[in-house]
Amino acid sequence: MNSIRLIILTAFLLSRALFLQAQSNTASTTVDTSALRKNIFKDNSKIYNLVKDMVSGNRDVGALVKPFSDTSNTWGVNLTNKAIVVVKHAFKYELNEENFKGENTDRTEIIVLHKDKSYIDNTNNWSDYLLNTKDVLLVFIGGVNDLQNSTIEIIKKKSFFSTSLADLITLSQAVLSPSLAMDASSASTKLPVTFVLLNPEKLNSPCNINITYDEKKEPLKVDIHERNFFAFHVGVSGQQLNKNQVKLQNQQLTVALDSTQKKEWTSNLVVMLTFYPFGGRDIDRFEPVYKQNLKGKTAGYVLYKYTAERIGIFGGAKLSIDPIQNLYLGASYAFSKNFNFNFGWTWANTLTPSVTSVGNINSISDAIKYADRKYERQTFIGVSFSPGVITDILGLKKEKESTKK
């Protein structure tokens, strides 16, 4: 029995070691405190050069950060959609703000070095907004008793697609009744620096990188946002719409339905899977058309934000126990994150004039299954919403919650 326990424990420790190795790689060095001048930490370019100097002076660190090299193997030239996250305590200085005096362990700072390369736009500026970023290098400066022993955890968040799918399931039911420790050393005129390169395979956006250095304090967080390519929408055709139902008032889109209109919409809902082929959508910064602020942007970027980013291709079916009764295909325009205009075609499965022998069947509902059918194509124009929004519009969520009670 003891030997079995030993084998299990050994296997667990080995798997844990492999997991940690897959999670990230580390390398350590030191930085001379004379280089830590206050004005350096007021400018991202200067911080970047400080990190670059530390990399250049240490072979192990240089080998670790190869993902940040360009084609000529010059470290750090390309920071587009790559991020260096500097973690440090606030530093204390003498009156001239030049001579390093020590660390203020009561305050911890995160500095994100990252170049934001926008689609179509020519700007390539420093930004702390990480979008689908896979290469992330953490740099811990100082903090012998806390930062250098930080725990790093990657927290996966729900994507826009998975949220729309979960809301669609809820709507359908209503309608159809780790840790990693780092070693460090200290010296009187130097501070320890630990580089941690996270495994890109673990950084599946959207997610948070949580850095815990003190159990009594909230973790430091770095958000990585997602670029959304697929989403479920639920809509109705233009036949169910009139000008009094959907309005734009005070920069807000409102949908007002009476009880009869809600029943009509509920019995004619269409489920659509939409694909955004032109680079997807930066979903957390995806503003409604009427709220976009594009001052100072290039003409190409403005055109992209108003057209290509918002155009989707969808396929769909009627939300019913017989979904292939109506099939849909077309294009959509995203007026906002949760509201689309749709246009395309619908194929209705209709009965064709014919005489079919059904034997001894006496029920029309059973006999009609044997009738000849064909799909007839018609033009389709309508609107669609994210499943969560249309659930609220139709009051289905409230009805479901009251039924549970």
Q: Give start-end ranges of low-pLDDT stretches.
A: 1-22, 178-187
Biggest sheet: strands side by side, in what order?
1-8-6-2-3-4
Number of helical segments with 4 or more residues: 9
Q: Which range best describes the helical content: under 10%, 10-25%, 25-40%, 40-55%, 55-70% or over 70%?
A: 10-25%
User: Cα distance, first to last residue?
Assistant: 51 Å
Outline the biggest β-sheet: 6 strands, mixed
* Strand tally: 20
Radius of gyration, in angstroms, nearest whole number: 29 Å
Structural class computed from helices and strand pairing: alpha+beta
Question: What can be said about this structure in brief?
Answer:
With 405 residues, the chain is an alpha+beta fold. It is 23% helix and 37% strand. The longest helix has 22 residues.
Describe the secondary structure blueprint for this structure.
Blueprint: H1 2-23, E1 24-32, H2 44-56, H3 59-64, E2 82-93, E3 100-117, E4 124-126, E5 130-131, E6 135-141, E7 151-156, H4 160-175, E8 190-198, E9 207-212, E10 220-225, E11 227-228, E12 230-237, E13 246-249, E14 252-255, H5 259-266, E15 270-275, E16 281-282, H6 299-306, E17 311-318, E18 326-336, E19 339-351, H7 364-367, E20 373-385, H8 387-393, H9 396-404
Parallel strand pairs: 2-6, 5-10
Antiparallel strand pairs: 1-8, 2-3, 3-4, 6-8, 7-9, 9-10, 11-16, 12-15, 12-20, 13-14, 15-17, 17-18, 18-19, 19-20
Helix pairs in contact: 4-8, 4-9
